[in-house]
Amino acid sequence: MVNSPRRIQREQEILAATRVLFDERGLRDAQIEDIAKAVGINRAIIYRHFNGKEELFAMTLVGYLNELDAALSLDDHPEGDPTERLRRVTGAFLEFGETYPAFVDCAHSLLRRRGDELMAEISEAVMFRLGRSMTACLNHVVEALEAGVKSGDFEVRDPFLLANIFYNQALGGLNLARLQLTVREGNPGLPTVDQVSFDEVKSYIVEGAVAMARGVGAQTL
Fold this sequence. Notes:
mainly alpha, Arc Repressor Mutant, subunit A, 2 domains, two-stranded antiparallel ribbon, globular, disordered C terminus
């Protein structure tokens, strides 16, 4: 199907309304009916532009990822020390996720699906755009890892795989940062709950990324 200017405009209106509702209410509370109402259309029209809710969410995630790429670019200094570069990029990713919790939820909603299920629900064109936007973000980490391998600071056989692992770990860590609670054993057999700040979680994740890039575990990747 040829995308007319009017069709493209309508898709952008739907995506903009979805993004606003995600940022205001979160992914769970943003209903298709609310998105349609914000655009001034019937919900059935949304499904003329997107194969389903998952494809709409995927395209919304593309928007988040494009903004994330721009944010990472501001903190990524290719000429700098690879270790500090990795720290800065990882930290910028976490700060973006902390600023936009719906980005984390949107990313998780797609990651929870099996690949074959996702491919059945999302068109090839949308999967291509999603992959391209995600790769642009991951490349900041990949290039930092490759620079570290070249300088002898890191030992990583597959920087792309490790970058994907970092991406998933950081999303999980952001859930903990949002919860701001940890569980530990106070007295034997008695669990207690402690408060944890975003900065504490961020510090562990950033230094964990550096340790994985340097450590023995990274040599097998």
